């Protein structure tokens, strides 16, 4: 089995197109790509991204921002969700509503956006009271994987490429973010997540002799143009993240 995992596109269609091209160049067909959610939210090209994703019909799980787009009133949405919502059609919203919170792909890979229990909780990281992001304790990571029998578990949400092996050999992989390399969040306390690179991230997963081989790939694209779109849409923090992978 060999396939690609993408996550956290956040309406960055240019990054998604670059990643899809790179996946094809690695000999992986479109029907061997899975999507871990947070597809559209952001000040970029939500409508165009939605059109492309609907045409691809990838196995996709719902991210927290996908959920916000269909559960919240526009007046209650954050800036990124509201900007995306303004570009979406009824068909796009129906697609978001149809997405499952988790799924098992080909009986062998477990997919979720953040954790199996919640779409807005960090699985592999934790945030200290002073706003620093740290690796979560192994026991806490393993507790969230209880009951999952698949040997490969995929999650997104933190936008950080990462792989953690559990004590029983199961592997949790976060492929990183296709379209949003840095962000800030107020929950559970104010903190930043910054990859330090503007490149689009995804992962190739291949099982060899019963073991999973994971390759993280960082793909260049015209990120400066996307940064300019964010700046023009009044989102300087997004512009900085897209241009550099840092928020400032």
List keywords for this structure.
248 residues, alpha/beta, five-stranded mixed beta sheet, four-stranded mixed beta sheet, 8 helices, 13 strands, 30% helix
Layout of helices and strands, plus pairs?
Elements lengths: L1 E5 L6 H13 L7 E3 L10 H11 L7 H8 L7 H7 L4 H9 L3 E4 L3 E4 L12 E3 L5 E3 L2 H7 L7 E3 L7 E4 L5 E4 L7 E4 L5 E4 L5 E9 L2 E9 L3 H10 L3 H9 L4
Parallel strand pairs: 1-2, 4-7, 7-9
Antiparallel strand pairs: 1-12, 3-4, 5-6, 8-9, 10-11, 12-13
Helix pairs in contact: 3-5, 7-8
Can you tell me about this structure?
With 248 residues, this protein is an alpha/beta fold. Helix content is 30%, strand content 24%. The chain has 8 helices and 13 strands. Strands 3-4-7-9-8 form a 5-stranded mixed beta sheet, with no helix packed on it. A 4-stranded mixed beta sheet has the order 2-1-12-13. Strand 3 and strand 4 form a beta hairpin. Helix 3 crosses helix 5 (90-98) and helix 7 (223-232) packs antiparallel against helix 8 (236-244). The protein is globular and about 50 Å long. The protein starts with a strand and ends with a helix. The model has no long low-confidence stretch (mean pLDDT 97).
Short description:
This protein has helices spanning 13-25, 46-56, 64-71, 79-85, 90-98, 138-144, 223-232, 236-244; strands at residues 2-6, 33-35, 102-105, 109-112, 125-127, 133-135, 152-154, 162-165, 171-174, 182-185, 191-194, 200-208, 211-219. With 248 residues, it is of the alpha/beta class.
């Amino acid at each position: 089995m060999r396939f690609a995992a993408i996550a956290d596109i956040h309406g960055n269609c240019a990054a998604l197109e670059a990643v899809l091209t790179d996946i094809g160049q690695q000999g992986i067909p479109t029907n061997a790509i899975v999507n871990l959610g947070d597809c559209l939210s952001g000040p970029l090209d939500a409508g165009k991204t939605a059109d492309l994703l609907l045409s691809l019909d990838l196995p996709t799980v719902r991210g927290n921002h996908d959920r916000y787009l269909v559960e919240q009133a526009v007046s209650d949405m954050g800036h990124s969700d509201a900007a995306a919502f303004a570009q979406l059609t009824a068909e796009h919203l129906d697609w978001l509503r149809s997405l499952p919170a988790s799924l098992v792909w080909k009986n062998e890979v477990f997919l979720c956006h953040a954790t199996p229990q919640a779409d807005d909780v960090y699985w592999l990281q934790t945030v200290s009271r002073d706003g620093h992001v740290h690796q979560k304790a192994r026991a806490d990571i393993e507790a969230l994987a209880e009951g999952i029998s698949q040997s490969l578990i995929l999650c997104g949400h933190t936008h950080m490429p990462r792989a953690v092996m559990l004590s029983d050999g199961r592997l949790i992989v976060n492929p990183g973010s296709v379209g949003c390399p840095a962000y800030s969040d107020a929950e559970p306390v104010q903190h930043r997540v910054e990859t330090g690179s503007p490149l689009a991230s995804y992962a190739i997963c291949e099982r060899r002799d019963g073991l999973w081989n994971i390759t993280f790939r960082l793909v260049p694209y015209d990120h400066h143009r996307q940064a300019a779109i964010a700046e023009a849409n009044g989102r300087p923090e997004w512009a900085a993240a897209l241009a550099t992978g840092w928020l400032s």
